[in-house]
Amino acid sequence: MKHMVSTIINGERRELAIKPYRSLLDVLRNEAELTGSKKGCDVGDCGACTVILDGKPINSCLVLGVEVDGSEITTIEGLADHTAPGAPLHPLQESILQHGGAQCGFCTPGILMAAKALLDETPRPTDEEARFAIAGNLCRCTGYTKIVESILSISGSEGAL
Amino acid sequence: MRPFDYFEPATLPEAVSLLERFDGRASILAGGTDLLVEIKERIRLPDHVINIKKVPGLDYLSYDPVDGLKIGSLATLHEVETSPVVIEKYAGLYQAARELGSIQVRNRATVAGNICRASPSADTLPPLIADNATIHTFGPDGERSIPMEKFFTGPGKTVLLDGEILTRINVPSPPPNTGKVYLKLGRRAAMELATVGVAVTLTLDGNECRSVRIVLGAVAPTPMRATDAEDILIGKAISENAIEEASQAAKDQCRPISDVRGSADYRREMVRVLTGRALRMSIEAANEGNSPFDISTDQTVD
Ligand SMILES: Cc1cc2nc3c(=O)[nH]c(=O)nc-3n(C[C@H](O)[C@H](O)[C@H](O)COP(=O)(O)OP(=O)(O)OC[C@H]3O[C@@H](n4cnc5c(N)ncnc54)[C@H](O)[C@@H]3O)c2cc1C
Fold this sequence. Notes:
Chain A is 29% helix and 16% strand.
């Protein structure tokens, strides 16, 4: 049996018919056609599926799609403001490009959403706070240093939120 | 994921009657960070999943000096690790919560789920038992309260009966001059299950140890109290000799296995080292009336 779920994804109301045993990640990637959130381990270890659910970063692979009825979700597709003139990237996206914080790119959507959640709560994080915030996001390319630099270099700057 | 039916009961009695109706084929879903992994890995095969997050009155974390800390069964690890009263008065629990999984996991995971999963390495169990917590349940025959120390019967096994739901964890208010510590040893700093966990809750009376509870994680089928070590300390003056003797007693009493995270011998030796360290830290905290951990966070908010 499918359940009707009404949720706001990236500012847009979506009504989705969902089987109860589908993860939010599968629902986002298939039913909602937002493939930016990645499926790495599918059991909460890698963080590639991180999205912001009602203001908090979570692993969308460990939430059921049916659980998000009435919730608000931001995925990587909703990070930058596409309605702004010229549709600029979000400062975090610019920063990670500039600092070489993305190589193969698979972890990047999850990293950016974890970083966005950090900066929403702590606009000027310390190095330690930035590392603590992305402890649940695995990256096999960068060695993390460039990711941390990407986050710290825009901390507290205008428009980073 | 293997198909299941999904329910969102609106009351506790409704949740209990669903559990009774499905007679062992239903699983409760709280944060889902254990359950959904177990369903995906086909370790658990429930036909029915009962999400209790819509049941009102379970999502709270409150404190008063008489009743102590009350942790509702929907309170998340994130709520616990950011609670000022937990940071101040329940330092062992604070440290365990802070080191459990990732922020993403802690935003979903509940303390009650950590308890009901009953993993030998579960992080919140040792500090809660050291703090003499009580578990409150609701089931077909009404309410029960169970000392947490008696709650676990084996890996993944508890005294919860069919149809019973954990509703609340109660943790007494600490007397003055109490120090609390939880030390987690893992192979890396974050996103790691404990190879050994040691919790100490210790109250001083001058230089004398008025009471102490030492609880070891990941070195037996359930979290275990190092009672031999406690007996060496209780009612005696604190001395370096007594601490070393107690640490050795904890090592002798634990019953670890060898697995991917460490050999039995290594775990035993680490129990000795960490028990000594946790005792010294909790004595220092009891003397100073402070949390032993550096909890200052340099958060400049404009
Ligand atoms: C990536 C990752 C890292 C992790 N790291 C750690 C770690 O470092 N340390 C650690 O200890 N754990 C860790 N865990 C395990 C898990 O996050 C915790 O055990 C968590 O506290 C479980 O809570 P939950 O609310 O998600 O439980 P759920 O998955 O919802 O439930 C767990 C079990 O308890 C039962 N249950 C839940 N609530 C109740 C209730 N109120 N009454 C009766 N039964 C109930 C469920 O039916 C299920 O069997 C990790 C998990 C993941 C995915």
